[in-house]
Inverse folding.
């Protein structure tokens, strides 16, 4: 079962050559989830040859231009193909107004259903295999972070144990793996717990951008396999970060450390830092949390199953 994360843009405030505005994409079992949609998102999607037509859900953190200005173009592009599935866009309440006004002013031709869903903290979407959490951040306007959390999977099926309990190979094995009781060849009821090991945890991806540091972020992203987090400033500009309600790379690393995440992927860098100077942010974060990646545009990361 695949679970991949793609960095589409890592710049904050303004796009730079080779560094587009903030956006990330998750591909899980062929389903695509887009997080923020800054300028250049379409370019990175094209360069990575990602099937943008299959994006089913978009999650917007907040209504600042560098996180939503790529959205009208993406919506128009999706009208160039025969799209039958609706596109669901989650975000702050004003997001629906932005999309509707863009459609009218730009005379956008949209031939598919767009569902705008205003979010509140908590579970905002759920299916049998995963749920998506939304949590509040602290920025200059209403802002949210998001997590995709896979649900626990059944434990490994023991073929040896099933045969010992005289459960013949075939459909009964499938029922046990789906959590159903079965009757063996002797008429004895066999429970799934008789043949399955301990439940296995799922995978988790978290996305946080445009917020001042506060300790509860670690609780929201706790146990994430991959944690995309803003690193707007270096440590010497902590006062500026606090005033503008952003984080330093060191503070992002503190969230990762306290949240016991697997990997921290820094993003949303101030344009004041050249590509060469970005290493300062990486070094400051790694001093706190060694499993840090100085994420660049169009990097990709795979989250394997935990067996």
């Amino acid at each position: 079962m695949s679970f991949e994360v793609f960095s589409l843009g890592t710049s904050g405030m303004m796009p730079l050559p080779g560094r587009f505005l903030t956006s990330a994409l998750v591909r899980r079992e062929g389903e695509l989830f887009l997080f923020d949609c800054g300028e250049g998102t379409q370019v990175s999607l094209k360069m990575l040859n990602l099937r943008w037509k299959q994006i089913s859900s978009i999650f917007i953190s907040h209504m600042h231009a560098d996180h939503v200005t790529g959205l009208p173009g993406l919506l128009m592009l999706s009208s160039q193909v025969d799209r039958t599935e609706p596109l669901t866009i989650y975000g702050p309440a004003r997001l629906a107004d932005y999309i509707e006004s863009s459609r009218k002013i730009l005379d956008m031709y949209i031939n598919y259903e767009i569902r705008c869903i205003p979010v509140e903290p908590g579970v905002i979407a759920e299916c049998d295999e995963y749920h998506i959490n939304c949590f509040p951040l602290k920025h200059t306007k209403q802002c949210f972070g998001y997590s995709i959390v896979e649900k626990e999977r059944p434990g490994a099926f023991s073929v040896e144990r099933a045969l010992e309990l005289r459960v013949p190979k075939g459909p009964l094995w499938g029922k046990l793996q789906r959590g159903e009781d079965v009757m063996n060849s002797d008429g004895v009821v066999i429970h799934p717990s008789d043949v399955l090991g301990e439940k296995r945890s799922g995978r988790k991806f978290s996305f946080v951008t445009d917020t001042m540091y506060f300790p509860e972020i670690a609780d929201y992203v706790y146990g994430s396999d991959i944690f995309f987090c803003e690193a707007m400033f270096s440590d010497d500009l902590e006062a500026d970060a606090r005033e503008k309600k952003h984080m330093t790379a060191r503070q992002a690393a503190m969230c990762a450390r306290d949240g016991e995440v697997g990997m921290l992927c820094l993003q949303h860098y101030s344009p004041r830092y050249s590509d060469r100077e970005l290493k300062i942010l990486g070094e400051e974060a790694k001093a706190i949390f060694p499993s840090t990646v100085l994420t660049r545009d169009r990097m990709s990361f795979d989250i394997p199953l935990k067996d």
In short: The mean pLDDT is 93. Residues 7 and 53 are 18 Å apart (CA to CA). The two ends are 12 Å apart (CA to CA). The longest helix spans residues 95-105.
